[in-house]
Amino acid sequence: MKRILIVKVTSMGDVIQAQPIVSDLKRAFPGVEVDWAVDESFAEIARWNPGTDRVLCAPLRRFKKARRWSDFRAIWQSIAELRAHRYDVALDIHGVYKSAIIAFLSRSRKRLGYRNEHLGERGAAFAYTGRFAPTRDRNAWSGMRETVSTALGYPLDNPPDYNLHVPAPTRPLVDTGGRRLAMLFHAASKDDKKWPASHWIAIAQELVRRGFHVVVPWGSQAERSEGLEIVDQVEGAELLPQLSVTEIAQVIAASDFVIGVDTGFVHLAHALGKRTVMIFIATSRETFENNVPFRSVSIGDGNSVPPVAEALAAIDHVHADPLGLGGQGKSVAAA
């Protein structure tokens, strides 16, 4: 096996959680080159993994919204880059039309994708020469690794190695005044995934009481307004300026603790080995949770709003570390 293409186009959390596959492949096939096809929106995340030899990206999301000629030209150029090498195998672990087309356009005679019942879009099946079924006895993140290992015939005998190296900032992004840094990710893509502002205020107040410098990031004006509602009620809490994806990742890398709803940046915190609490309100905890004893904990049942007390118990758990297990499980180095 000389060269493998992984196709996982979106979204942020999925791209992050699929990164251990690169380390798995490098371990299973010494000397193999691994390329990654991803939407331009998340290309920088894939580039943080030094194990990836080439990151192939195109503005697929942006073209779908705006239909601009410049984006179409960028997509066309990315196809030429994709076909610059012939792959021994192309692995579509996304399972929709756009990912299947990428696999089909690659110079690989062996193109593997999900069986029909597991595809996000049934028509994607046209691209594949072989099929696999996702492993269902574990959560989605473990399942991705096991699915690929089964498809290519190598064992998994190691914890996930995300191997993400976030570039160091050129200037300090947060002045903590010597206090430990805690980030609160209150924002979510859908309203039903959000935790009440009153709950966030209570958590922020408790973290400040424990000596943390609490910061709240945001992306849209609506998220900024929601963040202001929190920090206005918590003396010492800080609403961050609008930051890029890389800048937010840099603040996460500098943080001592991260708490947030089921969103990509909280998955990144877990991948970077941070003490993390993830809150599930409207998505399946069983499917998407992160769990490393005394380091990364998920709460909520995915059908109701977890109380503040449950979050506080989780915070106590990730900071207890009675046996020095906080770093258990090889996760990530931040540059």
UniProtKB/TrEMBL annotation:
Domain of life (superkingdom): Bacteria
UniProt xrefs under Gene3D superfamilies: Glycogen Phosphorylase B
Cell compartments where the protein resides: Cell inner membrane
GO molecular function: ADP-heptose-lipopolysaccharide heptosyltransferase activity
EC number: 2.4.99.23
GO annotations of cellular component type: cytosol; plasma membrane
InterPro entries: Glyco_trans_9 (IPR002201), LipoPS_heptosylTferase-I (IPR011908), LPS_LOS_Heptosyltrfase (IPR051199)
Mode of membrane association: Peripheral membrane protein
Keywords: Cell inner membrane, Cell membrane, Glycosyltransferase, Lipopolysaccharide biosynthesis, Membrane, Transferase
Pfam families with a match to the protein in the record: Glyco_transf_9 (PF01075)
Pathway it works in: Bacterial outer membrane biogenesis; LPS core biosynthesis
Biological processes annotated in GO: lipopolysaccharide core region biosynthetic process
Catalytic activity, reaction form: an alpha-Kdo-(2->4)-alpha-Kdo-(2->6)-lipid A + ADP-L-glycero-beta-D-manno-heptose = an L-alpha-D-Hep-(1->5)-[alpha-Kdo-(2->4)]-alpha-Kdo-(2->6)-lipid A + ADP + H(+)
PANTHER family per the UniProt record, alphabetical: LIPOPOLYSACCHARIDE HEPTOSYLTRANSFERASE 1, TETRAACYLDISACCHARIDE 4'-KINASE-RELATED
Family under the similarity heading: Belongs to the glycosyltransferase 9 family.
Protein name (record): Lipopolysaccharide heptosyltransferase 1
Species whose genome carries this gene: Paraburkholderia largidicola
Source lineage: Bacteria, Pseudomonadati, Pseudomonadota, Betaproteobacteria, Burkholderiales
